[in-house]
Amino acid sequence: MAVVASHSSVVSVSQKWRDNEGRFVCVELRFRGVCFRISSVYAPNMNPERNDFLEAILPLFDPLAANVIGGDFNSVPDILRDHLGGNPSEHYNSTVGLAAPCAFFFYC
């Protein structure tokens, strides 16, 4: 993850987090008095590891801060809209871990 700001901008890094495997990186920034967090997620592609990972990072999303979360969640919100193929049992409940703190999900 990279954060680019001009020299005239006053952006300060309040905190930063990362896991040991490089699957989660988060930086908390302050810009003009506003606090927000930018996170990059690369979730494991199989359960139970995926749900365990998502549950472990939940406390790092501050509901009082603006959270921008991107990455590869290796999950689908609706198995019926997913591509054909694969093992449907692996997709069951694959977004349960992040559904609670996120107001919007954008899947590509």
Walk me through the structure.
With 108 residues, the chain is of the alpha+beta class. The longest helix has 9 residues, at 49-57. It has one domain. Helix content is 16%, strand content 30%. It has helices spanning 49-57, 88-91, 96-99, and strands at 11-18, 24-31, 34-42, 66-72. The radius of gyration is 16 Å and the shape is elongated. Mean pLDDT is 76; it is low at 103-108. It is built from three helices and four strands.
Molecular shape: elongated
Nearest-integer average pLDDT: 76
Low-pLDDT runs of 5+ residues are 103-108
Main sheet specs: 4 strands, mixed
Q: What's the structural domain tally?
A: 1
Give helix and strand order, one letter per element, not per position. Answer: EEEHEHH
Tell me the layout of helices and strands.
Blueprint: E1 11-18, E2 24-31, E3 34-42, H1 49-57, E4 66-72, H2 88-91, H3 96-99
Parallel strand pairs: 3-4
Antiparallel strand pairs: 1-2, 2-3
Top keywords for this entry?
alpha+beta; 4 strands; 30% strand; elongated; disordered C terminus
Short description:
The chain is of the alpha+beta class and 108 residues long. It is built from three helices and four strands, in the order βββαβαα.
